[in-house]
Amino acid sequence: MDALDKVLKPKTKRAKRFLEKMESKLSENIKNAMMIKDGSVNARVTQVLRDMYARKKPYGVLYKNKNITRPFEDQTSLEFFLKKSDSSLFMFRSHNKKRPNNLVIGRMYDYHVLDMIELGIEKFVSLKDTNTSKCPEGTKPMLIFAGNDFDVKEDHRNIKNLIDFFRGPTVSNVRLSGLEYVLHFMALNGKVYFRSCKLLLKKTGCRRPRIDLEEMGPSLELVVRRTHLASDKLYKLSMKVPKALKPKKRKNISQDTFGTTFGRIHMQKQDLSKLQTRKVKGLKKRPAENGIED
Questions:
Q1: What is the distance between the alpha carbons of residues 12 and 7, in angstroms, rounded to a whole number?
Q2: CA 148 to CA 285: how far, in whole Å?
């Protein structure tokens, strides 16, 4: 049994608030991401964690101490730290002779690892290496995926499915000036190119501005190494929506794919022979016609 599972009743108000925060809710909180590293020393991969943490603020937790763990062999220690930090996303960095400059990105479900993917870093450009202006902390990014591999290859399709790590908070409205952060993923020749850009709106003399992208870092060139995917049953269970959040069905009202609402009206059967129409002289029956009918 986990150490955190042994706490049955809180002894302080602070512990009570902590347990209530970790309970399941109809509308879950914004997903936090945990950045953790193993015992090996590598300044390059460590800087990747720091840059990703800087872009995930304030929805991120960075562990500076070294923690010896192997996510693909034993996930117990990793799940302990994720439950302790109340995080559902994680990024783990490691470096060894067999897999140098290693990066693992994954998601959690019910405090257990749902799926994860291992990537190798071949090229890296840090935030410090670019002298351009940066986006404010907490800016929601726009995600762009380029390349047919994201739709054809299974590994790249899984990378596209792990966008929860970069998606940011869910918002209902977006203003034009708030669209200033772009994450571009391109799949080419078996590699994944990650670019972080700032969106600039230039004046054009008309109502629509001209859009320019300015690279601000970090930038990565990644290669897929290993994957750990959830079973179809578990993945379907993690995507289940509570009944309270499902839209209630309204009788005789439907919507199409464009959001247009249609209504259906039910009427009783009408006797058209008794329908009062406009009396027109040309349609009036003559005596001769009446005699024929008799």
A1: 12
A2: 74
